[in-house]
Amino acid sequence: MFNKATTLNKSTPAGAESRSSVLGDNRQSTLARASETQKALDSMLSSPPVPSAAQDASEPLNGSRLIVGANVKLKGAEILDCDTLVVEGRVEATMDSRVLRIARHGAFAGKVSIDVAEIHGEFEGELLVREQLIVYATGRLKGQIRYGRIQVEEGGELAGDIGPLTGSENRPVPIRSTTPELAPVPVERIPLATGTSG
Hints:
Elements: H1 16-46, H2 55-58, E1 65-68, E2 73-80, E3 84-87, E4 90-96, E5 99-102, E6 107-119, E7 122-135, E8 140-152, E9 157-164, H3 167-170
Parallel strand pairs: 1-3, 2-4, 3-5, 4-6, 5-6, 6-7, 7-8, 8-9
Family: Belongs to the bactofilin family.
InterPro entries: BacA/B (IPR007607)
Protein name: Polymer-forming cytoskeletal protein
């Protein structure tokens, strides 16, 4: 009934060798794919996805950070006291903070006053960058753009009213008092007596 080519080991059930061979191949394939995936994740985590020339100087270690994720829309907001805003989705807002980072597929529309802006995606509106504006190759800006310093990679696009900050734009806006100004009071000079009394 059995020839020499198909003899089975008494301790191995029929067909188990072929199953273990197939399972072994699947296991090795799965382990190889898992190893490749782990290597890819390790490389992504070990190096930042968005290299930043201004990151060390502009981002506090323990600062407040807001991340608007991909497929998230934030509309009609006023963003204040945020050290770093990372835009991966779409934001329509006004903002006065320290660092704005727009990711490759992110978009920001509105009015922004910021220390450092890094644009990989799209910006439309008024942008005042007090220190440094960095436009990467995939970055697109449209509107009124003012900057302290600018760096544009080949391929980056700017359209609209673009120029360096002037002295008046770079100064903080003075806070106006709500109390009425007092009229100056005339001062009358009174001579001092210099003699002795007698």
